[in-house]
Amino acid sequence: MDLITLAGLVIAFSAVFLANWLGGGEVVLLLNLPSAIIVIAGSIGATLIQSNIQESIRALSLLKWSLIPPVYDFNSARAIINNLAQKVRRTSLLSLESDVHSFGTPFSSRALQMLIDGADPTLLEHRLHDDANRLYDKRMKSVSFLEAIGGYAPTLGIMGSVLGLIQAMANLNSPEALGHGIAVAFVSTLYGQGFANLVVFPIANKLSGYVDKELLYHQLLIDGMCGIATGKHPSRLELELDSYE
């Protein structure tokens, strides 16, 4: 589990509550369920309108990476590729049948199976690049889905504040109730800005970094598979792949 994400969220929200407390504000004023509903539920609803069910499901699936990030071990992948290259030089491509799942990912398994089936190196490279780019595009659409939520949140916060002010204006004859109502109304704006800039955008940026790293990892696999397919010496192949990290 990525404890940095949890630690960052705790620090960010603690800073807001601490600043409010040091300024003499009441903590209870920051806890407003209607504001949270209109900002969070409203932002998600608006994003769903512009998306489809597949994109929504993929985005929720990708969201788990913020707490349980994927592991891309470049050193281990280079070692496996080197072993495969040496095995092919000693025997043949067919000897790799037992190593199809050695990397543990669907992409690598497809790449190895195509290599074993004797695909032309040029066609193999183009096909794997296409597969990697399609997967990258799908991942980035999920990131864009989350960024859209963050984009709508501040606007929904302003809408919540307007609704709160409308309700506060109903208490013009009671200055005390009016003041409290106005204070609560602006909590929605705070929720909108906080939800977008303390939660959604940081998580989306983190996920974007993981997606970029996945693409780089796939590029390592592609170069490795194509190197084996063209019969490169394991030492030369290892040297060419050494720059990936």
From TrEMBL:
Protein family (similarity comment): Belongs to the exbB/tolQ family.
| Primary localization | membrane
Record's NCBIfam families? PRK09109.1
Pfam families, per the entry? MotA_ExbB
This protein's membrane topology, according to the annotation, is: Multi-pass membrane protein
Q: Which organism is it from?
A: Marinomonas sargassi
The record's subcellular location field reads:
Cell membrane; Membrane
Keyword annotations: Cell membrane, Cell projection, Cilium, Flagellum, Membrane, Protein transport, Transmembrane, Transmembrane helix, Transport
Show where the MotA/TolQ/ExbB proton channel domain sits. Answer: 106-216
Transmembrane ranges? 28-49, 149-170, 182-204
Say which domain of life the source belongs to.
Answer: Bacteria
Protein name, entry field: Flagellar motor protein
